[in-house]
Specification:
Blueprint: E1 2-9, H1 18-26, E2 35-40, E3 44-50, E4 63-64, E5 71-79, H2 82-91, H3 101-112, E6 122-130, E7 135-140, E8 149-153, E9 156-160, H4 163-167, E10 175-176, H5 178-185, E11 202-203, E12 208-212, E13 217-221, H6 234-251, E14 259-262, H7 267-282, E15 289-294, H8 311-322, E16 325-330, H9 333-347, H10 354-367, E17 372-374, H11 379-383, H12 392-395, H13 415-421, H14 423-436, H15 446-475, E18 480-482, H16 488-495, H17 499-502, H18 510-516, H19 522-525, H20 538-553, H21 565-573, H22 589-603, E19 607-608
Parallel strand pairs: 10-19, 14-15, 14-17, 15-16, 17-18
Antiparallel strand pairs: 1-3, 1-9, 2-3, 4-5, 5-6, 6-7, 7-12, 8-9, 8-11, 12-13
């Protein structure tokens, strides 16, 4: 995987801005530790950092076509159907000089223009400069697995795989306005599509491209879910799900570098691992490597509504049944504390605290042995596996169902900030806007229509921050994580599968469980949903509590330009947990958010507008 960045300016000769372009590119070194490159012209400049995965010697970027001049590409991603597209393009007269999928993307645009992304199956975010039309295209994959940000300045745009690359250019100061505050405190678990948190920073939305010419900047949607009647019966649906998932996993095993899976012992990651192992066996390859995460003392932890069971026994059962070469990564709490700054810098924003830190440490260990990992991310969103899909009160709550009965960090805002931000109104407007975008099915009413709404909310509001977290944390250590459940063909098919097929007999993710049951031990196939683990260690909480008290004693702590100092003091004095940005029950989540917001404001020198 890679990092892309660049600059379009109609008033400035960018051929004299190589130093600044290289500074922007250097911020993405963790995404691309293997090579870098820049390309400059009068009005457009592209930078690239490369993580070599396919065609290790031939995928140098930015890439231009010597045979048919007209476009330059800086590309981050993997095309899983690049072999088929290559054959089609060769039949149309294209001659390829490399084996890289980068060249396929470039030539696809030369052949089909803006329609090219419609043909892609993969994870991608890229910038393509058309030298003849003087048009910049910023393109993002169907589900938004790979990130891409942009900022419109007075005479052009800046763009980058991560905010840090755009912020490296003085044309975008690091500022937070009322809308950004609302995103950070009122909707941390359901961010608005396209919002980059920093004032003036946007994210290319999933399934969209942004076209920038001298005269206009336009967002164009090239992919969307379509609602239609589901024609297959239950058995045919199970068979089709198995076929699509198996094909997605097999396609995503293509790599010229070591590859593994992330195995938590749940049905999602176990299905991916089992299908990967079977595909490798058919291809005559050896056993697949798998990794999981654990914490000291986790065996003593009491299960709760989010963490219904310990991973370790299920991981062991799955690994033994499938036959993987498995490693469990143990993460001590002191390591979590040490990783906090690295995670903040990776995400460019306050995140999920120790859950991000443990993921960073897991990925760091995985990267010592593999460059690519397959994950079970997104199965819950497309099959309906989260508790809120089965909670009648949450479904009827009139807001994002995962916010039902929860207090967000917006409760900590100072009265003057709250009056300006109006977090409840902001959340309500975001919810109404999202419902208005649901592709309806003619004649569908009642519970079926409501379930479709919730699936849409899950895909457009819940899934994006999870994918962003995985991408940003994995790429901070140079690891590419692939997500077979996000294959847009599988998502399109499941979008129209009725709820009674997805949860037969009320069984959560029963469709997925039945589709892969023959591959897994029974206890894994039927394991109830259990969320990503958080540390049971007391020391982490103690250290963060001490840091919060230090902030209270600091009259210049920037977080209290936003947060009510007296409210925080009262919570700590009474031993009550602060409102958390996470939906999972975790007493340290609110403390993490408070301390991280302060650390972020300081580290990024964020101004308030």
């Amino acid at each position: 995987m890679c990092g892309v960045t660049g600059w379009l300016d109609w008033d400035t000769d960018l051929r004299h801005q190589e130093r600044l372009l290289r500074e922007m590119t250097a911020t993405l070194a963790c995404r691309g530790p293997d090579a870098d490159g820049v390309w400059l012209s009068r009005h457009a400049a592209l930078g690239h950092r490369r993580l070599s995965v396919i065609d290790l010697d031939g995928g140098i970027q930015p890439q231009a076509d010597a045979d048919r001049p007209g476009a330059v590409l800086s590309y981050n991603g993997e095309l899983y159907n690049h072999t088929e597209l290559r054959r089609e393009l060769e039949s149309l007269g294209h001659v390829f000089r490399t084996r890289s999928d980068t060249e396929v993307v470039l030539r696809a645009h030369l052949q089909w223009g803006r329609d090219a992304p419609r043909r892609f199956n993969g994870i991608f975010a890229y910038a393509l400069w058309d030298t003849r039309a003087e048009e910049l295209l910023l393109v993002r994959d169907h589900l938004g697995i790979k990130p891409l940000y942009w900022h419109a300045h007075r005479s052009g745009v800046l763009f980058g795989s991560e905010p840090k690359a755009v912020l490296a250019n003085p044309l975008l100061p690091a500022e937070l306005d009322a809308e950004g505050i609302a995103e950070l405190f009122a909707l941390p678990a359901a961010p608005s599509a396209g919002h980059g948190l920093f004032r003036g920073l946007h994210e290319v939305r999933p399934g969209h491209l942004v076209s920038v010419t001298r005269h206009a900047t336009r967002e164009v949607r090239y992919w969307a879910l379509e609602s239609r009647p589901h024609e297959d019966g239950e058995e045919a649906t199970r068979e089709r799900v198995r076929e699509l998932l198996a094909d997605a996993v097999a396609r995503q095993l293509v790599s010229d570098v070591p590859l593994c899976t992330l195995l938590s012992g749940g049905v999602d990651s176990s299905a991916v691992t089992a299908l990967a192992a079977a595909a490798r066996e058919r291809a005559g390859h050896g056993k697949i490597t798998s990794f999981s995460v654990d914490f000291p003392g986790s065996a003593d932890r009491t299960p709760d509504a989010w963490r219904t069971s310990l991973d370790a026994p299920y991981v062991q059962a799955a690994a033994e049944h499938i036959g993987t070469l498995h490693t469990s990564v143990l993460v001590p709490d002191d390591d979590l504390l040490d990783a906090r700054d690295a995670v903040l810098r990776a995400r460019d924003r306050p995140g999920w605290g120790e859950m991000d830190a443990s993921l960073h440490l897991l990925f760091r260990e995985v990267r010592r042995r593999s460059t690519v990992a397959l994950s079970g991310e997104a199965a819950d969103e497309i099959f309906g596996g989260y508790p809120y899909f089965h909670d009648a009160a949450a479904l009827a709550s009139g807001t994002f169902p995962w916010l039902h009965g929860r207090t967000t960090p917006a409760a900590l805002l100072r009265p003057d900030v709250r009056a300006r931000v109006r977090p409840e109104e902001y959340t309500a407007d975001a919810y109404r806007s999202e419902l208005a975008a649901v592709p309806r099915l003619d004649g569908e009413t009642g519970s079926a229509a409501r379930v479709r709404e919730v699936f849409h909310l899950a895909l457009t509001r819940w899934l994006p921050p999870l994918l962003d977290r995985v991408d940003r944390v994995s790429m901070s250590v140079g690891l590419e994580v692939r997500v077979p459940f996000c294959d847009h063909r599988l998502v399109e098919y499941l979008w129209n599968v009725p709820w009674e097929f997805k949860a037969p007999g009320g069984r959560s993710k029963g469709l997925l469980r039945d589709a892969v049951r023959d591959l897994l031990p029974p206890q894994v196939a039927d394991r109830p949903k259990s969320g990503y683990p958080s540390t049971p260690a007391l020391r982490y909480t103690e250290v963060l509590t001490a840091r919060a008290h230090d902030l209270l004693a600091d009259p210049h702590a920037p977080v209290f330009d936003l947060v009510d100092r007296a409210v925080v003091r009262q919570h700590l004095a009474e031993g009550r947990p602060l409102p958390s940005p996470r939906t999972a029950p975790n007493p340290v989540g609110g403390l993490d958010h408070l301390v991280q917001v302060d650390e972020w404001l300081r580290a990024y020198k964020v101004g308030l507008r």
